[in-house]
Amino acid sequence: MILSRASLASLPDTIARPGHAPDGIRTGIVHFGPGAFHRAHQAAYVDRLLDHDPRWGIAAVSLRSGSATDALKAQDGLYALAVIDREPSTRIIAAHSDAIGPGEGARLRKLLASPEVRIATSTVTEKGYCLAGDGSLDFAHPDIVHDLRRPAEPASVIGWIVAGLGDRRAAGSAPFAMLCCDNMTGNGAKLRAACVALARAQDAGLADWIADEVAFPDSMVDSITPASDAAFLAGVRETLGVEDRAAVQRESFTQWVLQRFDMADVPDLAAAGVTLTSDVRGYEQAKLRILNGAHSTLAYVGLARGHETVFEAMSDGTLESFVTRLVHQDIAASLVPVEGLDKAAYADAVLNRFRNPEIRHLLAQIAWDGSQKLPYRLLDTTRAALDAGRGVERLAVPVAAWIAFVRRKAEAGETITDPLADSLAAAATSANPVTAMLALEPVFGARLGGDERYRAAVREAFQYFAQGDITPLLGR
Description:
By secondary structure, this protein is of the alpha/beta class. It is built from 20 helices and eleven strands. It has helices at residues 36-40, 42-50, 67-74, 105-113, 142-149, 157-171, 187-200, 204-213, 230-240, 280-304, 310-314, 317-331, 343-354, 363-366, 370-388, 393-411, 421-428, 433-438, 441-449, 452-467, and strands at residues 27-32, 57-61, 79-83, 89-93, 96-100, 119-122, 177-180, 219-222, 248-250, 255-259, 275-277. It has a five-stranded parallel β-sheet with strand order 5-2-1-6-7, sandwiched between helices. A hairpin with a 5-residue loop joins strand 3 (79-83) and strand 4 (89-93). It is globular.
């Protein structure tokens, strides 16, 4: 037996059911890319919305693979969401009113033209938008070349959005709002520019209409969603007593930040837990500096102390205390006020996520590509501290740990996973590794790399790593 509306009543009492009748919802949202993240994240928010407003059921659309849409069709759109944490829980999500797979273009075209569909969303990864390196539409991309030749049979998500909006304009219908839910800075603006560019190559009037009439709000999403592997699905089958091929899992923390947008009769997304703001960029910066900055600190310092995962590193009381002070006293202090964001509460929530024993996040993986990550995760914070006259002694520690990490890898002849691997290895194994590393302008820039106060702080911190006892350093 598989999970379906017919088997819903037979599930154990410990499984939370939908707060609405699954067969009573209507399609108001079309979503491109119904992978695990969408099913664990946006669909869970919409599921709560449907408890009091049945108009916003999701039609899941997959343009490439039919595995997710086939599973949703077989299970009447139902699946289990397992929240993995100290106190795990499982609930049945009933947010999907339809599913459209590859080869069902006619159904998709009809749905996008329907006035009842008021919102379209997408999680297709950054590469799914056919963008060039500068963030603009890549007209040389094979899918875009195809869409320009055959606009009535699009291959790309951009092509389908433009075709759907074109049908709405031709019919005199209001457009749907387009919500990109992939983690790209300024994702709404980038998607708008790409759609306008493709439309302009086909119909200048349509391009102007899209630019003037269609909402493309920016957004930010966050929640760790481990893969639904065979072991997980077997566990779900045991828990439910029925097979569920669409089940997903995620951590308890989840965040969806959305720029306010104009739309008649907009759904009450805030009531479903979505944060509506005029400053998505501020939330993105907070995530980058607090969450990712702390992650990199735990990675490089944790590896130096012999830890393997984020949870192990946070179980090290000395390191946990250091990271907590770094986050609250140094990183959060660098952030400007953001509408609706309690920086201290967000920092606490981030640190608590790292204490989740059920999430196995490898420090070695976080440590990859340090030259690309550190400028945004920690060095911008350091510049802000120097500009404000605050101390940088704690902020120097993870950078010193990174230098020590690269040096250990280079001396052991191990692979350094970083685009600047050769330059890093040469600098870190030189006679003056701190001076040589800070001189790498692509990482530190001329100003920070040449700031004597910062250089001294990193040099002092590095000595502790070189000597092999960093415990006193972590007391800062």
